[in-house]
Amino acid sequence: FVDHLYAALAQQGIQTYKDDETLPRGERIGPALLKAIEESRIALVVFSENYADSSWCLDELAHIMECVDTKGQIVEPVFYFVDPSDVRKQKGKYGKAFRKHKRENKHKVGSWRKALEKAGNLSGWVIDENSHEAKCIKEIVGTISSRLPTLTTNVNKDLIGIVTRLQDLKSKLKIKSDGVRIIGIWGVGGGGKTTLASAAYAEISHRFEAHCLLQNIREESNKHGLEKLQEKFLELILKTKNVVVGSEIEGKKQ
């Protein structure tokens, strides 16, 4: 399953690594793997029946869940022939594995349990004998694609002042605060407002579970009506299709 999922992600053009595919053999939870985890925007964790048997996997998971808190990393769990409650509460084969870990890795058990509890509480995919694996893989790849920035983060650093302005804009957004921020970018046409907003979106959108970038709002609303923009916004945020907005007022309510 993991090999097929990995191939599907790569085919979609998503830069992906598996710890046993990209990193040199023998480099367990070392600096190279830690760096790979920390630089990833999304961690796709596949929980299998024997996942908890591996102290290596549990070390990885603990570090991934730390990155959720410190770097805003997104975690997408896949429960492959395992009940999410077994992961969350360390029951069944997970409980059996932890009884062994309590004897051999007592100093790590606490952090591993906490990581499994947090990951097990996340919504994800549950795959069992009734699931169509190919369809599930397609859905997973689609979700991962939608969560990644639609724009490249390779901003043209030669644009005058773009780096400084981008840093200033990001500081005003106060990403780590719990409040809602609305930032206006004002200036003459051709002054780089869209470029600046696009660059900011590309750099921070991965921190949020839902995000979208709507461009050319005036032109699009004049051409197709504001309702079409509202439909596009809702489809991107809700990750669904065929949203119908009957009126501008109805769109605001949704």
Automatic annotation (TrEMBL):
Residue ranges occupied by any TIR domain in the UniProt entry? 1-148
Task: Supply the alphabetized keyword list.
Answer: NAD
Protein name according to UniProt? TIR-NBS-LRR resistance protein
Annotated transmembrane regions: none
GO molecular function annotation: ADP binding
Q: Name one GO biological process term.
A: defense response
| SMART domains registered for this protein in UniProt | TIR (SM00255)
Is Transmembrane helix among this UniProt entry's keywords?
no
